[in-house]
Amino acid sequence: MTQKKNKIAIVSKEGRFLSVWRETDGAQIWENLGLEGAAHSADSLFAQFLETSDLIAFVLSDSIQLRSSSDGRLIWSKNLRGEAQTLVEIDRNILSIEKRKKEDGVVVEIEGFKIESGDSISFKSAIKDVTFSDIFVLGPHIITLDSSRTLLSVYEIRHDSLTFVSKSAVSSVLEGEREISGFLSSKTSTSFLVRTSSSRIGCISLQSTTLKGIHVFHPQDKVEYASFEANEQEYIAQIQIKQDQTDILLLNVLSQNLYSVPSTSAISSKQNGFVHKFFVGGKDKYLIVTEDHGLTLLNKKGEVRWHRDEGVASIDLVQFVDLPPDQSQLTSLDRQFHETEHGFFLLKFIHRVQSQIHQLKDKVDAFAKSWEELEWGKVFRDEKGGQGKDRLGFQKLIVGVSSSSCSIFGLHSFTGSLLWKKHVPCTSSSDS
User: Fold this and answer.
1) Would you say 291 and 405 are in contact if contact means Cβ atoms under 8 Å apart?
2) Residue 52 DSSP class
3) Model pTM greater than 0.85?
């Protein structure tokens, strides 16, 4: 999914459908058929709006399509030699950056096309057939990690060539670190994140032609990162869901200052599991997806704006059981069975029979009243504010088990409200 000028472009999971939607009201502008046949990897399916025109490029496995974002009209379609990782738009050309895996690392393939016609352009690469541990595309630059994982190199992407810019040892960029195990996906226009061999997360900025480390995060347990811009400033956000609370840390890439969003106990690993996905919409909107398929939006004060339990839709097993009595019903029962004289079993038995007769009479009266008024729901509406048993016993507790969200939950059968939920840590979606 990608967004530009109140338009959202979406490639379906298997690449079979391409569509553009209006951001303001969710109306679909157009939809077209994408790929036919077998499903394709989600890693090789994406859309990207062009900056200099009203066109949108769709990368579909080993092909690229250029379409009008207004009506979906196909401009041209070309096959690719490999699977594109990203697209770079330079001087009215589209460059497809492709990362091809080999046994000892990855190599970079770059293909260029003219935007107007789709004609191929001749492209010279300084790293053609060179094997790296990993690569990362940052704007018009490619960052490479050598086979020893101790050396970072910067190459500049031009309209017809890729040229060498600079080279830096990891130890000179990130103090106290010697090796990098890989790149993370989060980035700003000038900075990117790497995972070091010591399991720390380093933020590196490209300043002119030089790489400079600006901060090293020391995460505990599972964390996620997101980037955003606010007031012409670039930020990296780190979220960590702990046992009893959630912490969000903001790094200003330019000033290198750190800011903390107030912690919240509304989300915790004990109740929701760890963070699954993390999205940021400025300094006042933090959208969190947790392992139990919960969706929560926090503001800049760490307060919950709203929460949705989407895990209840992925039910694997359901059991309908009677609702437990509420406190008032428990008090009534306690009075009925414990206020008789001590030691007189017969009196207790008689009192119990009288209680059963009274309860039966109440049910008959309620049933007759409902029949007369032809309002079957009134019996339930009068009592739906509570969570205990109703007089006729029609309301039930729906106990559901969701293995994909690792949750057990209880739903009220009449109102659909979530009465309780318990997160049970599991290692995969097949656990139960």
Assistant:
1) yes
2) S
3) no
